Amino acid sequence: MASDETFFLQPFTTHRKRLVPGQRVLARTKHHALDDVERLARTAEGVAVIYFTADDDTGEVSALAALARHGAITGRIRGTDQVALRTSIHAKAD
Which strand (E) or helix (H) includes residue 37? Predict the structure, then answer.
């Protein structure tokens, strides 16, 4: 039951006055993710660093957190966004 730690950057753009997620960018380590978010924050309207731990065998997510937020992102990630993240994580495991 090995677990896999993954870090990715989630940029956001504005569409019809609402923030919508863009294409995710995987990062090799936490250090790379935090460095890259500073660079991406200069051009994106909002960007977040997302960290999750998933079981390699089942794809079950045991931890999910936003490590950093920049730009127009305020508050925490809503439950519907977490469901979408979990769905994409399971698709990645397949």
Answer: helix 30-40
Going by the DSSP 8-state scheme, the letter that residue 41 receives in this structure is T
Contact 49, 40 (CB under 8 A): no
pLDDT digits (tens), the chain, 94 positions: 677 888 999 998 888 988 888 899 999 999 999 999 999 888 888 899 999 888 888 878 888 888 888 888 766 555 435 544 554 554 554 4
- Give the residue among 13, 67, 83 at the shortest CA–CA distance from 44: 13
Beta carbons within 8 Å of 87's beta carbon, 6+ residues apart: none
Domain residue limits, the chain:
3-93
In what helix (H) or strand (E) does residue 93 lie, and over which residues does it extend? helix 79-93
| Among the listed residues 57, 52, 46, 58, the one whose alpha carbon sits nearest the alpha carbon of residue 84 | 52
For the full predicted model, state whether its pTM sits above 0.90.
no
